[in-house]
Amino acid sequence: MPWFLYVIECQDGSLYTGIATDVARRYAEHASGRGARYTRSHPPATLLAVLPCADRSEALKQEYRLKQLSPAQKRAFCAKHPAPVGTV
User: Does 88 have pLDDT greater than 70?
Assistant: First the structure.
């Protein structure tokens, strides 16, 4: 089963990074308030980026690398890996 790294822009302009096997389902969880603690207090506005990964291990490594970047670098990453239209 493929894994995905995803980036959500929250309503306050902050960015949330996570991994999932079903990005649409996970985004819906974040939007309904059942997702991560961070997105409960920073509701999601849009899905910015999705990057397919070979397995969970690779997704976790990519997530760690992305979280080390500055917000500007994260937005540049999102520009290179935009979420497919109709993902959520």
Answer: no
